[in-house]
């Protein structure tokens, strides 16, 4: 089943600060270079941290299971934060992403008029040598290295020939070419990176120096508005990278509403984030 050879795209959330919410979504290569997006596992672990376990927050997500994801289509992936503790909190989010691609067959296994014909675009099979080669673990980014081997578990292996190491996502910034195929769609008209755009706004996210800060204090049981709404696989997604692994990791910090937040989060007094919070903090 050559065209049914499977590799995973991974959206995986890791633990950070006061909460841990893990969700593994997988994208597998199927016939016709379309993609299926299904839930491989859905694990939620809440860790309560703070004085007498009063401060806690949790990343929440909504997504719809789908049977196919072709280049040029969008899939829902909503990300927000809920205050699950007993005291008011201020929260911020950030994202990291990583990518590893695998060698593609460029020639068929037969000849036409003594000349090699074009390849079929399937991932190239690789003979794994367990004595000299390392396997890729989708959960361990340190194994996402060129030359390492991914196994589907049925004695089928593929060798990595392209990668982007884990790196922070920069809103409206430059991204590595291999990551540009994955477009993160944020909440329309509620995510800003220029102070002037926030005039008259409430309940918004403001991006500064790698973090998305939520503008409002979260009372217990309250949630932010969604930050991320969906992800699009762009129409120009390069065929030679089909079957690659992609990991998107939302990370969350939560803090009480005391003024020590300014120091703990290294917020500059000249920044918009400082202006946004200064009248909301207490001693």
Keywords:
about 280 residues; mainly beta; four-stranded antiparallel β-sheet; 16 strands; disordered N terminus; BsaA; Peptidase_M73_camelysin; Alternate signal-mediated exported protein; Signal_pept_SipW-depend-type
Secondary-structure blueprint of this entry?
Layout: E1 8-12, E2 20-29, E3 35-45, E4 57-63, E5 74-83, E6 90-102, E7 107-112, E8 115-118, E9 149-151, E10 157-168, E11 182-186, E12 191-192, E13 205-208, E14 211-214, E15 228-233, E16 245-255, H1 260-264, H2 272-277
Parallel strand pairs: 12-13
Antiparallel strand pairs: 1-2, 2-3, 4-5, 5-15, 6-10, 6-14, 6-16, 7-8, 9-10, 11-15, 13-14
Note down, in words, how this protein is organized:
- It is a single chain.
- By secondary structure, the chain is mainly beta.
- It has one domain (9-97, 164-277).
- The chain has 2 helices and 16 strands.
- Strand 1 and strand 2 form a beta hairpin.
- The model is unreliable at 1-52 and 113-118 (pLDDT under 50).
């Amino acid at each position: 089943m050559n065209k049914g050879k499977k590799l995973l795209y991974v959206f995986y959330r890791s633990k950070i600060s006061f909460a841990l919410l893990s969700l593994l979504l997988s994208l597998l290569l199927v016939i016709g270079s379309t993609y299926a997006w299904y839930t491989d596992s859905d694990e939620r672990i809440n860790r309560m941290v703070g004085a007498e376990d009063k401060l806690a927050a949790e990343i929440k997500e909504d997504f719809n299971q789908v049977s196919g994801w072709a280049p040029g289509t969008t899939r829902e992936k909503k990300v927000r934060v809920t205050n699950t503790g007993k005291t008011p909190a201020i929260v911020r989010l950030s994202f990291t992403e990583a990518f590893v691609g695998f060698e593609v067959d460029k020639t068929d296994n037969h000849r036409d008029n003594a000349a090699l014909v074009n390849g079929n675009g399937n991932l190239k099979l690789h003979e794994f040598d367990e004595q000299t080669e390392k396997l890729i673990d989708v959960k361990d980014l340190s194994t996402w290295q060129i030359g390492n081997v991914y196994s589907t578990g049925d004695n089928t292996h593929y060798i990595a020939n392209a990668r982007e190491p884990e790196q922070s996502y920069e809103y409206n910034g430059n991204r590595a070419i291999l990551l540009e195929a994955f477009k993160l769609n944020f909440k329309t008209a509620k995510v800003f990176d220029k102070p002037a755009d926030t005039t008259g706004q409430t309940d918004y996210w403001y991006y500064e120096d790698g973090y998305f800060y939520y503008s409002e204090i979260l009372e217990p049981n309250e949630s932010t508005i969604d930050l991320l709404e969906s992800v699009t696989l762009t129409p120009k997604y390069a065929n030679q990278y089909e079957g690659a692994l992609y990991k998107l990791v939302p990370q969350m910090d939560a803090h009480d509403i005391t003024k020590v937040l300014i120091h703990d989060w290294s917020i500059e007094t000249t920044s918009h984030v400082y202006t946004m919070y200064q009248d909301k903090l207490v001693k």
